[in-house]
Specification:
six-stranded parallel sheet; globular; single chain
Length: 386
């Protein structure tokens, strides 16, 4: 059996890496980079070191700082105008997953006719795109190393998964110091997102030996450090470990796949404007419990990587320990339910059939160890409401 591996061409990893961004971009042959970020990154000064590095390298640098959470097809229009106005030959996605996903989408749409819905999964996109350098400021999405972007269709509220080499960053700059100011809630949600990536990549029907190694390494680091960064965001060793683990998990699922948790979380985000990582966290224990029977030994490996089971435990015991750990993690990280987030039962129940349909249409549930029916997805949505 053969499998194809896709990775960024360059990766700069470690403290201070963002201060070398200009050199990285210049080495890629670009002269007119456009930094794509959100208003907070600009107003807080977080992006300043990146801009200074680019300008010090003699590059004609532009700034587009209007990215929105959970980018939509409508929100891309101003970004496309900024790309054209600057004459950008490279885009730098600076921020969380929304900014990096925006940069990927802008890089693609600037070289291909719209609308974006024409390029959603199951289509695999291999067409031209402006090169993207990804600079993550959260330890979670792994978008800096993946061939995916997620854009919501403004006309339908569908959170579209767009996939293919066209969306793979040419380079990633992974500097954990950019995460030191993350608040506890964001640290928790993005950390669970990274753990979901790692576990789903490992149990996916498309898992392979390459992705397995990155997934297991990410799980071990997240298991040892996620609670710590939630408790003490100034712990630099824990922050560094989480940042690397998020990138490793991104590499894992980009070269394997995600599964049912992600298939179900995207519609939650689209319909109720809940951040992607938090939606994953809401779903993770229940979906894992539903799925364990389809890959018990693989889930048992995950429990051992997280150090909640040992080699002496049989697979059934270890797999149950994983489910128990995910429930405990949700409690320890104060993961809310949809009900506690203020979503009414009436609104939730009304959306469930559509969300189930959208989850299945994304293709991700087909990678799950137990492939669900629409009815089973609806039952899982009902179970997590709270």
């Amino acid at each position: 059996m053969t499998f194809q591996i896709s990775l960024p061409r360059l990766m700069a990893v470690g403290a201070g890496a963002v201060r070398e961004l200009g050199t990285t971009v210049r080495d890629l042959g670009a002269t007119r980079p456009l930094v794509v970020t959100d208003p907070f990154m600009k107003d807080s000064g977080t992006v300043d070191a990146a801009l200074a590095s680019l300008r010090d390298a003699g590059l004609a640098t532009g700034l587009y700082a209007e990215c929105v959470p959970d980018p939509t097809t409508d929100s891309l229009q101003a970004g496309l105008a900024a790309v054209q106005e600057h004459g950008a030959d490279l885009l730098i996605g600076f921020g969380g997953g929304s900014s990096i996903d925006t940069a990927k989408a802008l890089g693609f749409l600037s070289q291909n006719p719209g609308p974006m819905r024409d390029y959603k999964a199951p289509r695999v996109n291999t067409g031209p795109a402006l090169p993207v350098v990804a600079v993550p400021t959260t330890a979670g999405t792994g978008s800096e190393a993946t061939q995916f972007t997620i854009i919501s269709d403004s006309a339908t509220d569908e959170k579209m998964l767009c996939t293919g080499p066209s969306f793979l960053p040419v380079a990633a700059v992974v500097d954990y110091e950019l995460t030191l100011s993350m608040p506890a809630r964001l640290s928790a949600d993005t950390g669970v997102d990274a753990l979901t990536h790692a576990i789903e990549a490992y149990v996916s029907r498309r898992a392979n030996p390459f992705s397995d190694g990155f997934a297991l390494a990410a799980m071990a680091a997240i298991g040892a450090n996620l609670r710590e960064v939630y408790k003490d965001g100034s712990n630099q060793a824990a922050r560094e470990a989480m940042m690397l683990a998020a990138t490793q998990a991104g590499i894992a699922f980009s070269n394997s796949s995600v599964a049912l948790v992600h298939g179900m979380s995207r519609p939650i985000g689209a319909h109720f404007h809940i951040a992607h990582g938090l939606a994953n966290a809401m779903l993770f224990p229940a979906v894992t419990e539903f799925s364990v029977s389809g890959a018990e030994s693989r889930y048992a490996d995950c429990a051992r990587a997280l150090a909640v089971a040992g080699e002496e435990d049989d697979d059934a015991t270890a797999a149950q320990a994983l489910v128990d750990e995910l429930k405990a993690l949700a409690r320890d990280l104060a993961v809310p339910t949809p009900a506690s987030r203020g979503i009414s039962r009436e609104d939730w129940d009304r959306a469930v059939p559509v969300m189930a349909e959208q989850a299945l249409a994304s293709g991700s549930p087909g990678n799950n160890p137990v492939v669900p029916t629409a009815e089973e997805i609806e039952q899982l949505y009902a179970a997590i409401y709270g």
